[in-house]
From TrEMBL, chain A:
<dbReference type="InterPro" id="IPR004113">
    <property type="entry name" value="FAD-bd_oxidored_4_C"/>
</dbReference>
<protein>
    <submittedName>
        <fullName>FAD-binding protein</fullName>
    </submittedName>
</protein>
<dbReference type="InterPro" id="IPR036318">
    <property type="entry name" value="FAD-bd_PCMH-like_sf"/>
</dbReference>
<dbReference type="InterPro" id="IPR016170">
    <property type="entry name" value="Cytok_DH_C_sf"/>
</dbReference>
<dbReference type="InterPro" id="IPR016167">
    <property type="entry name" value="FAD-bd_PCMH_sub1"/>
</dbReference>
<dbReference type="Pfam" id="PF02913">
    <property type="entry name" value="FAD-oxidase_C"/>
</dbReference>
<keyword id="KW-0560">Oxidoreductase</keyword>
<keyword id="KW-0274">FAD</keyword>
<dbReference type="InterPro" id="IPR016164">
    <property type="entry name" value="FAD-linked_Oxase-like_C"/>
</dbReference>
<dbReference type="InterPro" id="IPR016166">
    <property type="entry name" value="FAD-bd_PCMH"/>
</dbReference>
<dbReference type="Pfam" id="PF01565">
    <property type="entry name" value="FAD_binding_4"/>
</dbReference>
<feature type="domain" description="FAD-binding PCMH-type">
    <location>
        <begin position="53"/>
        <end position="240"/>
    </location>
</feature>
<dbReference type="InterPro" id="IPR016171">
    <property type="entry name" value="Vanillyl_alc_oxidase_C-sub2"/>
</dbReference>
<dbReference type="InterPro" id="IPR016169">
    <property type="entry name" value="FAD-bd_PCMH_sub2"/>
</dbReference>
<keyword id="KW-0285">Flavoprotein</keyword>
<dbReference type="InterPro" id="IPR006094">
    <property type="entry name" value="Oxid_FAD_bind_N"/>
</dbReference>
Length: 515, 116
């Protein structure tokens, strides 16, 4: 079989590449190795604003387990061919299933899709990278287990390992996913298999219940990095509460964000509201309602403030829409509900309960996400601009009203300058907020694609000057985002890479780490 | 899950009525419906709240059905091309997600009403 002419790993000859692929075929079977352009198409489609060629893979390989991965590591070291591991491959708007650098071999772990264990008493699970949230949800339903997990918006097709490894977030009380992971199995570049925490001990039965083990805790270095391939992950599940009371509070003005955040922060820190609260802007709600952008905007450029106000009035959408829930017993929720009503009244917000929300698709998918029920309702966002372009701009903010208003204004101004809409939301951790903005553009329009890249670049550098860093970034901006965190951190990351992966074969360039 | 079971049962009845059942009691269209329920229905289901259906409604403006299960002009080949490559805002699906055999079944299911 001839090798793919479109892309080869950097510095690797055609001859060595072909030899490597031959040896990998012998490991995983020919049907699980792709090198031709057509079958590689799913590993090439990206939504980020750079040319496809920049992230074109040379091949895709699909191992079925740890032993095959260990053998592939040997081949990769021998020929110095870099592999780019993906799990469910749906990190859409952050790079999808395409490699961080052109020519890398995608290692698709989707075949490893076993739910290895669910412990209903301890409320833990151990899963492989190919498991999707929908699969886990169906498993819990089929086994009649009253356990919930937290999932991100594209949960029906994405999975917990990949999301946790990229430090993604969700919307239940377990919304900070890495915080609620417990124990990893990692294949290192030399083929060693590390189990973190208590898993390092033989015969341990505490791997999924105690994170730290003895000595340095290593789990963190395998997230947003390229130091190993995570092949199993423990995660904590939440007992379904006897009473779940989701709600939305709508606010009429953009500047209301200050009082919203300052009023909610104490409730979140004190765990009166235990889940990852979302504060969504009008233009996040509109596409999921659904509202058509073309009904309000003609011609190029960003949507006007007047049009946004008209959307709010026409469709009963707030300038900001707060989503949160009470998780407890009827008695505790009754007591806390009085606090919610008092806060809404004092801040000028309008509460929409689950009963009152019937028929609203935007509210329905949010309420489902707050109890960990997978769906794809948020994909409505992609219909807003159309054309398949999206890149997430995701700075961290303090959970202080003045800070959030400042970030929102900065972002809106820069987006508007390039002709893009502010489609943003704040996801409240405890003391922080993930300010998540979907920079939506028409990827079939070359000018818009270039503008989207330039816009992200300006957003990144303007925010960095103010001391605001990204919590997560796409493969197109990995290097630039890493650079905003300064040279000392990067030097240590490089030294770790040299120690753990001296031939630079696992996803070089991911999160800006390479030799 | 109930929705899935209901869908599979409906397809089974349809398949048996049309005499297409395989030895194992399943038609290709029935297996295709199960694939649709697992991978496609979140976006392409019938009715509001399905972003894929919404996008196609917007694109066709009534000239064609937005919901794929109501289309009468889909061929297995076109289904396969869109699934593997994605298009515009639609993501791709790899053979590790939907196998080639499952994709054949999905194509048969969505093309079952092809009237061309």
């Amino acid at each position: 079989m001839s090798s793919n002419k479109r892309a080869l790993p950097k510095g690797v000859t055609v001859g060595d590449f072909d030899k490597a692929m031959r040896e990998i075929r012998a490991i995983v079977g020919a049907e699980y190795v792709l090198v031709d352009e057509e079958p590689l198409a799913p590993y090439s489609k990206i939504m980020i604003p750079v040319p496809d060629a920049q992230h074109a893979p040379s091949a895709a390989v699909m191992p079925d387990g740890v032993e095959q991965i260990r053998k592939i590591m040997k081949v990769a070291n021998k020929y110095r061919v870099p592999v780019y591991p993906i799990s469910t491959g749906k990190n859409i708007g952050y790079g999808s299933a395409a490699p961080v650098e052109r020519g890398q071999i995608v290692m698709d772990l989707k075949r490893m899709n076993r739910i290895i264990e669910v412990d209903a008493e301890l409320c833990t699970a151990l899963v492989e990278p190919g498991v999707t949230y929908q699969q886990l949800y169906d498993y819990l339903q089929e086994h009649n287990l009253p356990l919930w997990f937290s999932c991100p918006a594209p949960s029906a097709i994405a999975g917990p390992v990949g999301n946790m490894v990229d430090r993604g977030v969700g919307y239940t009380p377990y919304g900070e996913h890495f915080m609620f992971s417990c124990g990893m199995e990692v294949v290192l570049a030399n083929g060693d298999v590390l189990r973190t925490g208590m898993g390092a001990m033989e015969n341990s039965n505490t791997w999924q219940v105690f994170k730290w083990g003895y000595g340095p805790t290593l789990d963190g270095i395998f997230t947003q990095s390229n130091y190993g391939i995570v092949t199993k992950m423990g995660m904590w599940l939440m007992p379904a509460p006897p009473d779940f009371r989701p709600f939305c509070i709508q606010y009429p003005n953009e500047t209301d964000i200050t009082k919203i955040v300052d009023a909610l922060r104490p409730l979140r820190i004190a765990m009166v509201i235990p889940n990852a609260v979302v504060i969504a802007h009008t233009l996040w709600e509109a596409p999921c309602t659904p509202v058509k952008r073309t009904d309000y905007v003609t011609g190029p450029g960003a949507i006007s403030d007047d049009a946004v106000l008209k959307i709010q009035a026409d469709h009963n959408i707030g300038a900001w829409n707060v989503y949160a829930g009470l998780y407890g017993t009827k008695e505790t929720n009754d007591a806390n509900w009085k606090i919610i009503e008092a806060v809404a009244a004092a801040t000028g917000g309008k509460i929409i309960t689950e009963e009152a929300s019937r028929g609203s698709k935007a509210l329905e998918y949010r309420f489902d996400l707050m109890k960990g029920k997978p769906n794809l309702g948020e994909f409505g966002l992609y219909n807003w601009r159309g054309g398949g372009g999206s890149i997430w701009f995701a700075p961290v903010s303090q959970a202080k009203g003045s800070e959030t208003l400042k970030q929102m204004k900065m972002a809106k101004e820069i987006l508007g300058k390039y002709g893009f809409d502010y489609v943003g939301e704040f996801i409240v951790g405890w003391r922080d907020m993930h300010h998540v903005i979907d920079l939506l553009y028409d990827r079939s329009d070359e000018t818009q694609q270039k503008n989207a890249y330039a816009c992200y670049d300006e957003l990144l550098h303007t925010f960095a000057k103010e001391g605001y860093g990204m919590y997560r970034a796409s493969t197109a901006f990995a290097e630039k985002v890493a650079a905003t965190y300064g040279p000392v951190k990067r030097d240590i990351e490089k030294r770790l890479k040299k120690a753990l992966d001296p031939n630079n074969i696992i996803a070089p360039g991911r999160c800006g780490i390479s030799l | 899950m109930m929705k899935k079971l209901f869908g599979v049962c409906t397809a089974l009845v349809t398949a048996l009525a049309s005499g297409q059942a395989w030895a194992g009691g399943q038609t290709e269209a029935e297996r295709g419906l199960a694939v649709f329920q697992e991978w496609c229905v979140s976006c392409h289901g019938i009715g509001p709240g399905h972003p894929g259906t919404q996008a196609l409604d917007h694109r066709y403006q009534g000239a064609l059905a937005g919901a794929l299960e109501q289309r009468t002009d889909l061929s297995p080949e076109i289904v396969k091309a869109f699934v593997r490559n994605g298009i515009s805002v639609m993501p791709f699906f790899r053979k590790t997600e939907i196998s080639d055999a499952e994709l054949d079944a999905l194509g048969a299911y969505l093309a079952r009403n092809d009237q061309r």
